[in-house]
Amino acid sequence: MKDKAISNLIKKESKRQTETLDLIASENFASHDILEALGSPFTNKYSEGYPGKRYYPGNVYCDMVENLARKRALKLFKLNPKKWSVNVQPLSGSPANLAVYFALLEPGDTLMGLKLSSGGHLTHGHKVSITGKHWKAVQYGVDGEGIVDYKEVKRLAHKHKPKIIISGFSAYPRKIDFKKFKAIADEVGAYHMVDMAHIAGLIAGGVYPTPFPYADVVTTTTHKTLRGPRGAMIFSKKELSEKIDKAVFPGLQGGPHNNTTAGIAVALYEAMQRPFKKYAAQIIKNARALAKELKQFGIQLVSGGTDSHLLLLDVRNLGIDGMEAQNRLEKSGIIANRNTVPGDPSPFKPSGVRLGTPSITSRGMKEREMKILAFFIYQALLGRDIKARVVKLCKQFPAKRFLKS
Ligand SMILES: *Cc1c(COP(=O)(O)O)cnc(C)c1O
Questions:
Q1: Is the pLDDT of residue 405 over 60?
Q2: Region 276-288: what's the mean pLDDT?
Q3: Candidate list 224, 227, 288, 338, residue with the active-site label
Q4: How far is CA 29 from CA 152, 196, 374, in A?
Q5: pLDDT range class, residue 348, cuts 50, 70, 90
Q6: From CA 41, how far away is CA 58, in angstroms rounded?
């Protein structure tokens, strides 16, 4: 690369990714093949519209890429193409959610989602998000144990009659009862939208309950547990798909990023191969093992454990807050983000840290390493410097094979 400044920064970032442990639950390593698709000449092409109906010529191969991505997406999640449709053009998870609301709601209509402070996403109706400004947002929460308060969901749904009820979260360690959400949505005549951004790879791998039998629309990012490029997809029941497609383009976006679509197609191909099932299962095994080991050090976990790829640590009994925990971990090369825990008095001073296993599982770590990692986390949280040992562990599980040099 002739641009030495950027080339240097890429090298530095690659080294950073190799020499730290990434426990951010929404991050992962996309494969070399995916990076190759992202860096391909498909980035040069404009193709506003959909396969067979483009506003520019020259799209014969873009059409094939997009059709292949759509076909694979339906196949991966075992969906009948007569009943379900998928849009692979949303530029990321947030615009995907926005497109769904734009398709199914009028301005001022009501939507309902989990509060940010309980593990929901900004785009589920938080007041600083356009989703909480442009539409009337009702927010449900979790109970003292950190489990979705389904009684509150039901009560609020009957009271406010939202048009869309959203399930699927960003910081929720347990299984979600999609059936219950659907039943409540049906009682009040709402659509049930599942945002499976975090858990898509687990669902694809068959190790987390599938939401599809109980959903009208399912959105997902492609770069979290699904291990693809940054992007998103919207699955919808056939009767809604025309509205959704129109909301994505021309409603919200211009030309799709065809290089990303190619990368998504590769990620879907990879997720259909047998090793991916093992990978998905190992993510959860690792999260459970890490939970068990951390508890032995007296560390408290919201909901007492996990059914998924993530854990929520409550660090109050260590005499620190989430920010301090995040900083202490980072000093030792363990990258994890602060997070609110149920009952936190202020969302600005969260008392927890969120830990996820997708990235370290991609590096090949298993239960044995979780035991070591739990010790590292505990030491780091106590303020001890274990950076050298973290780097050593990183070297034993190199991330280089994912990174272009
Ligand atoms: C990550 C996430 C998103 C948003 O994805 P971006 O690609 O960052 O816009 C949406 N919903 C949920 C539940 C998420 O966790």
A1: no
A2: 98
A3: 224
A4: 37, 19, 22
A5: confident
A6: 13
What would you measure as the largest C-alpha separation in the chain, in angstroms? 63
The secondary element (H helix, E strand) that includes residue 187 is: helix 178-188
What lines the ligand 1 site, CB under 6 Å? 26, 92-94, 97, 121, 123, 168-170, 195, 197-198, 221
Q: Return d(Cα 294, Cα 32) in angstroms, integer.
A: 33
Catalytic residue among 66, 149, 195, 369: 195
- Ligand 1 center to residue 389 CA distance, Å? 33
Q: Which two tokens stand for residue 153?
A: 């969901």
d(CA 93, CA 222): 8
Alpha-carbon distance of 405 to 392, in angstroms, equals 21
Question: Which phi and psi angles does 338 have, rounded to 5°?
Answer: -65, 150
- pTM for this model (two decimals): 0.97
Name the residue with tokens 């129109």.
246
d(CA 285, CA 306): 10
- pLDDT for residue 111: 98
Closest-CA residue to 148 (of 274, 303, 284): 303
Q: Name the residue type at position 265.
A: A
pLDDT-based confidence at 401, cuts 50/70/90? Answer: confident
Residue listed under structure tokens 């973290």: 390
Domains of the chain: 34-271 (3.40.640.10), 282-402 (3.90.1150.10)
How many residues comprise the chain? 405
Termini Cα distance of the chain: 11
